[in-house]
Structure formats: C-alpha cells, structure tokens
Specification:
By secondary structure, this protein is of the alpha/beta class. Helices cover about 20% and strands about 25% of the residues. Strands 5-4-1-6-9-8-10 form a seven-stranded mixed β-sheet, with helices on both faces. Helix 2 links the parallel strand 4 and strand 5. Helix 3 packs across helix 6.
Length: about 350
C-alpha cells in the first residue's frame, strides 16, 4: 500500500472571487468538489491512506469528506497555523505517515487535473532507485514554468527557473506537480519554517548528489489556477477528455445534477454543468460553463466559457462570455459581460447597465 500527501492549503488568489468563501480544492468541477476527483483517482491507483495538508479555510474539508470511508480511503487532516510553502507543508504532516524510511510516499498538488499513470510513477521510482521522482509533462510554451531537463535515463540534471530568453529554453519538460518521495527524504526538510520544494528542496538534493528521477507522462494535464482553466477543466471532465471515476453521471455534452431544473428549450453544450438546485430558464444557451449550486439563469441568457457562483442570479437576456460571477451576485437583465470580467460575491449590477467590459 502506498500512502499520499495532498497539498490543499493554498489561498487560490488567482481564482477569486470563487475562493473567497471556498478553498480552491473544494470549488465544484463537474458537479463535485475538485478534490473529490483527485481522491478518487488516488484510490483507483491503490492508495488507501491520504494526509491532507490544509491551511486556508481548513475547517471546510473534514465536514465534507470525514474519515474518507465513503471513498474507500483513510483520510487525516493537518492544518498549518502559518503558511509553510510546499516543502514546509510536506514536512508538517510527516508524523501522520505510516511508511518506513525506504517506502515511497506520493505527493500531489491540490490544483492539478491530470491523467497521470500513478502506478507507473511509483514503479519508475522503485525501479530507478531514486530518492525522489517527479512527474514531468511537455508543454508547447514552457516560459511560464520551471524547466526540468533529464539525461537519457530520465535522471534529472537541473532545475531551471522560468526561462527569459530562447537560449534558456533547453527543454520542453516541466514540473507537473506530482512526486514520489522516499519517506526518509521528507524528514530532511527543515521543520517549522516555510520551504519550497521547487526552489529549495529539489535543487538542494540535486546539489548534494541525490538521485532525482523524472517520468514524462504527457497525458491530460491542466493547472486549474485561473478561472478560465478551472472552467475548461470542469468541462473536460464532463466531456470525458480528462479522466475521473468521480464524475456524478454519464459523460457527454452536459451534466445536469438531479435537483437542477432546466427548461425544456434551454440548450446546454460543451461540457456545461448545471449544479444542484440550479434553475435554467427558457431559451437559455449555456456553452462550456459551470453553473454552481442554487444559481438561477434567466430566460434567454447566453453564457459561454463562464463560471457562475453558488446562489448567483443572471438576468434574462444577459450575455456572459469568459466571465466569473461570485457567489450570491445578482446580474440584472440585458447586460453584457465579457473577456475575463470578475464580479465579486454578493455584488449587484442593475439591468441594462453594462454592455461590455474588457479583461480586468
């Protein structure tokens, strides 16, 4: 049995206003909190014990998932009193692990949607004799990522910060946010202070001559750190492009939760989700979007690539394109909001008062 640590303590600043009241891993994707998909995939890979490293809005997790038995897991929760970074969070939960010094421990970031072959990563770790193994993925434009070049055997040769010039782009392999650590390595991370595995732990291990192994797995991978990416990830789960055993329904063009009310002539496409207790009015057209619990979409509204927060109201004939509407916000009829506009929780926009807004 392999156990795992899930890093779910981030504030989700880039996802606001969705994360004002809800921690990022608990924002619904394809009808359930995103964390549910990660837990279900870990369980399907044979993981039984998972420690959640929590911090921001930590009190939300345990009431929802409990001891994990409903998912066939044993879950434990450890809360940071002060943010400790990725490495510090890993070290902070070490006392809850059951593994021996040479046993592998899986570590996942709580905002990555991936089709990673988890058993293959563990097998690579064991067969290579590495102290740490990293999931790597290839991206077309690696400038926004830390580069991880490897030799012909997959052994990591360097960790490079985000490249600034074409000459610095020596590989298209980037850190994909899933790791296997030997249990003993976790104990070498300094305790009680912020530590970044990306900037301190990994480069330090490499400089000390440790064996770090990379496994390139270029299946589905998406960082859900922005609203646009989160909406896309939710839609891809519904469409079946991203794998998860936790999608609560059949994959297809739309996912309508049991308690949702959708008018007969409303059209939901592109992986759209109508969450619990939502009301979708007559003639509404919703494409590639997520409508969270209790939201109301008015008659004839047109919504594309947008995320509608819990309890929000969208007026009749209003157009949303690439918009993020916070929980409880009320958008009056005949408005037009586009290009990444974000409306804060409980905000109110009167009818016919906004016809267009650029990215902000």
């Amino acid at each position: 049995m392999t156990e795992a640590i899930l890093l779910v303590g981030g504030k989700g600043t880039r996802l606001r206003p969705l994360t004002v009241r809800t921690p990022k891993p608990m924002v619904p994707a394809a009808g359930v909190p995103f964390l549910t998909h990660q837990l279900a995939r870990a369980r399907a890979a044979g993981v039984e014990h998972i420690v959640l490293a929590t911090s921001y809005l930590a009190e939300v997790f345990e009431p929802h998932f409990g001891d994990g038995s409903a998912l066939g897991l044993h879950l434990e929760y450890v809360t940071e009193q002060e943010p400790l970074g990725t490495g510090g969070a890993i070290r902070n939960v070490a006392s809850r692990l059951h593994s021996g010094p040479d046993d592998p421990v899986l570590i996942f970031n709580g905002d990555i949607l991936t089709g990673l072959d988890i058993p293959a990563l563990v097998d690579t770790h064991r067969s290579s004799g590495a102290e740490v193994s990293l999931h790597l993925t290839r991206v077309e434009d690696p400038r926004a990522f830390g580069l991880v070049p490897t030799d012909d055997t997959g052994r990591v040769t360097a960790f490079l910060e985000k490249p600034q010039t074409p000459e610095e782009i020596v590989t298209d392999q980037v850190n994909a946010g899933a790791y296997v650590f030997n249990r003993s390595v976790i104990d070498t991370i300094p305790a009680g202070r912020p530590v970044s595995v990306e900037r301190e732990t990994f480069p330090g291990l490499l400089a000390a001559g440790a064996h770090l192994q990379g496994m390139v797995d270029s299946t589905y991978w998406l960082d859900l750190g922005t609203p646009q990416a989160f909406v896309r990830g939710s839609a891809d789960l519904v469409l079946g492009r991203a794998p998860s055993p936790a999608v609560p329904g059949r994959r297809g063009d739309r996912l309508v939760m049991e308690t949702a009310e959708v008018a007969g002539d409303a059209k939901l496409t592109g992986g759209t989700v109508a969450g619990p207790r939502t009301v979708i009015g007559p003639g509404a057209r919703i494409d590639g979007s997520a409508v969270l619990a209790g939201a109301v979409i008015g008659e004839g509204a047109q919504i594309r690539d947008s995320l509608i927060g819990a309890g929000a109201h969208i007026g009749a004939r209003t157009v949303l394109d690439g918009a993020v509407i916070g929980d409880g916000a009320r958008i009056g009829a005949d408005n037009e909001l586009r290009d990444g506009i974000r409306v804060w929780c409980d905000a109110e926009i009167p009818a016919a008062s906004v016809r267009f807004s650029s990215d902000q």
